[in-house]
Amino acid sequence: NGGVGGGSKDNPYLQDHVYEYKEEIVPQKLANKIMRLREEIATEWEEDLQLLIRENEEMWRSFFEKVREKGQDAQAHLQMPAFEHDVTGNCGTNYRGGNY
Fold first, then answer.
1. Phi, psi of 93 (to 5 degrees)
2. Which residues make Cβ contacts (< 8 Å) with residue 11, sequence separation at least 6?
3. Which of 35, 40, 65, 90 could lock onto 73 through a cystine, CB 3.0 to 4.6 A?
4. Cα–Cα distance measured from residue 51 to residue 30, given in angstroms and rounded to the nearest whole number
5. 99 close to 43: Cβ distance less than 8 angstroms
6. Contact at 8 Å (CB) between 66 and 72?
7. In terms of pTM, does the model score above 0.90?
8. 83 or 97: whose pLDDT is higher?
9. Looking at per-residue confidence, does 58 or 90 come out higher?
10. Mind listing the pLDDT tens digit for each residue in 37-75?
11. Distance (Å) of CA 57 to CA 27, 42, 44, 81
C-alpha cells in the first residue's frame, strides 16, 4: 500500500534515496590510524588504572573509619569519583567511558 518512506505510492516528490560512493583504502594510512588510537587508549588506561587505585584506597579508608567510629565516616562528604563518566566533554577517546 505505502510508497517510499510510508508515503503515497504515486507521490512524485518522494524518491528513493540510494547513495553510492567509492572510498580508496590505503593500508598504511589505516594502520597508522589504528596505531594512534591504540596509543591513545593505552594512555587512557594508564591514567584510569591510577584513578582506580586511588578510589580503592579511599573506599578502604572509609570502610576502616566506619569500623572504628561505629558506622560514621566524618570525611564521607568529601568523597567523589576520581573520574567523571561524562563522555560528552573533552575527556579522551570516545571509548573512555567504557574503559572505566
1. -75, 170
2. 3, 4
3. 65
4. 32
5. no
6. yes
7. no
8. 97
9. 58
10. 999 999 988 988 888 888 888 888 888 888 888 888 888
11. 45, 23, 20, 12
